[in-house]
Amino acid sequence: MIAAPETFRAVICHRCAKPIRVSQKLENRAAHRASEGKDIESQVFVLRCGACERESVYSASQIVDFPKSRARRILASR
User: Fold this and answer.
1) Distance separating alpha carbons of residues 8 and 63, to the nearest angstrom
2) How many Å from the N-terminal Cα to the C-terminal Cα in the chain?
3) Which residues of the chain have pLDDT under 70?
4) Dihedral in degrees, nearest 10, Cα atoms 38, 42, 48, 53
């Protein structure tokens, strides 16, 4: 049996600092641009935070790994 990854990819909300999970499509697009040697800083997208319900613009370079245990604590605190 394959173990589930212990991290997830997300950006940090500009307003409430909670992680916003990034879709697999966005992850793949950023990885593809990086592998082609293109500047990922120029790739931007809009995401809505599930915690504060606000939208903001994020750069592909802002995508980071978060531990899944942190996500569970954040969801439990809602």
Assistant:
1) 10
2) 32
3) 1-5, 38-41, 70-78
4) 150
